[in-house]
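Board notes (copied after class):
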Amino acid sequence: MSARWPRAVRPLLWAFAVLAVVHLAALLTGVTAAAQLTKPALMPVLAGYALARGGPPQLAGALLFGCGGDTFLQIGGDLSFLVGMGSFAAGHVCYLLLFARYGTAPGDGRRGRMAAAGAAYAVLLAGTVVLLWPDLPADLRIPVAGYSLLLTAMAFGALRAGPRAAVGGLLFLLSDTLIASGIAHWPQLPGPQFWIMFTYLAAQYALAGGVLRAAAAAPEPAPRRTQAPRTAGVP
């Protein structure tokens, strides 16, 4: 995998870093306007960076669906929350397709560890849903449970794309669990939005980097063999 736009790679990465710092600083200092303006811009810039690096279009799609989720979640209200959650869910589907395409299937020596990891993720999912369920608004319980299942599947699938993607999947789990705990009115850390966005931005960056690395290591598809056209009378 070679860079599509090599001159744009570094500027886009720096732009993402600056936007992330400004956004997180705005959350810490309570500058709401700056936080709201920078939030929708973060994932499109990271998607541009991924494309400039030569990443697959589905990776840009996953990040842009994240932008949709970011935008709708900051609008407020149950409908916007559900639309935003649906946009994040579409991004998780993109990630799952990327892991299936570029990830490595566990060999004989890793199958036991993958099975153990799968069991751990399943226990984590079940425990989180069971604990949150009574405190969630009744109309959000089923959507949140379904989304949590897809999110956990994405985090588990990220194990196939290497350590960086695996860390990204776990951070995404943490970020969205912090969101759900806020909806359930559980006690929150000081500056909860800062921690939600800090873990989320780190998650998306790690997932993008993991996919880019896995795609670069994937073997190139073999060229198709074409059969020369036959000429009449020639066997």
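Comment from the instructor: Confidence is low (pLDDT under 50) at residues 231-235. The helical segments are 6-29, 32-52, 57-73, 78-102, 108-132, 141-157, 163-183, 192-217.
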